[in-house]
Amino acid sequence: MEKKRKGLYYIVLILFMIFSCIYFISSNGYYEYTLHSKTVLNREKILEFEKDIEDNKEIDIKKYYQEEKKYSNRLSNNINDMSKGFVKLSRRVMKRIFRFLNKYFND
């Protein structure tokens, strides 16, 4: 019985660490940074397009469009969904705790 608890403890600890890392990355603005880099890349492509028009070069849309790399997989999507669910659950729990404390102290 003790070994099962220890194993469960390590599994929960590892899941919490994974959740914490993903939550930290998403809350620190990594996603916004990647969006910013995409806009910078788009600006560079727009400038290149304008220069090609000025130089009367042949225009091909494929030259200016870059395919977006997708790094997500099923595991990262599931962990991200779990973290969102955990955040919703923790908000509900905190609201209930504060409602209870409010009733306790105001009555």
**Nearest-integer average pLDDT:** 77
Distance between the ends = 45 Å
Structural class: mainly alpha
Strand content: under 5%
Largest sheet: none
- Evaluate the radius of gyration: 24 Å
Unreliable segments (pLDDT under 50, ≥5 consecutive)? none
Compute the number of helices. 4
The number of E-state strands comes to: 0
> What's the overall geometry?
elongated
**From N to C, what is the helix and strand string?**
HHHH
Give the % helix.
Answer: over 70%
Structure description:
- Helix content is 82%, strand content 0%.
- The protein has 107 residues and is mostly helical.
- The chain has a domain at 71-107.
- The longest helix is centred in the last third of the chain and has 33 residues, at 74-106.
- The protein is elongated.
- The two termini are 45 Å apart.
- The mean pLDDT is 77.
Key terms for this structure?
single chain, 107 residues, mainly alpha, 4 helices, elongated
What's the short story on this structure?
The chain is mostly helical.
SSE layout:
Layout: H1 2-27, H2 30-54, H3 61-64, H4 74-106
